[in-house]
Structure prediction request, 244 residues.
Amino acid sequence: MYVTPDSVEQRKRILRFIDPQPGEHVLDVGSGPGFLTCVIGEAVGPTGWVCGVDISDPLLAVAKTICIHQPWVEFCNMDAAALPLREDQFDAVVSTQVLEYLRDVNGALTAIHRVLRVDGRVVIVDTDWDSIVWHTNDRERMHKILTVWDEHTTDPHLPASLAKMMSQTGFHVEMQEILPLFNPVFDSNAFSNRLIDLIVSFVSGRGGISSNDAADWAQELRQRGEQNDYFFSLNRYLFVARKI
Prediction:
């Protein structure tokens, strides 16, 4: 999913909002396999420093391999709500598709605020999973599957309350923007096709959904693709703020 054209294009848009400059120090909270961290590293160059933190050792291992030629890029296993880093250490902090999975979002925002320099910028991106539009003739089954899928995250509707939480933490929110993932036609390499497999894996055996039910749901969507009757849309929400 990280390397689908949809995800690549979205990273480019997010990077424009981060706007990393040569020599800057940037923190990537929830850096995953390090694709965005690597591009930020290219932008800040050897006079800068990028720190990617994640709690997944396998993803950290991938990220270290991707950025092996950037010694000024570092990866560490850290809890986003703790961040044992110095105060006022970073010019910018980015977190994409992370906070919605945390139990302590306020703790993570407080930690980000602490390590960010005054007037430093933060870019946060998360999904509201209510925003899915997926063409189907079986709306009851779609609703049941997506309701169970909501359980894969701690707060599937975080963006609606995120700006207020950021303001209460001490950030000045300068911009809020929608980042749509839009697949009006089916493509085997599109984000939505990869998402189908993730959802099938997660919902099978949960909430009264059998593996056959999930497989039938996936088959219907892919058949629609073959029949040129496919439509998928999902909104991610981007917040740009500064520390005050």
Notes: The two ends are 35 Å apart (CA to CA). The longest strand covers residues 171-183.
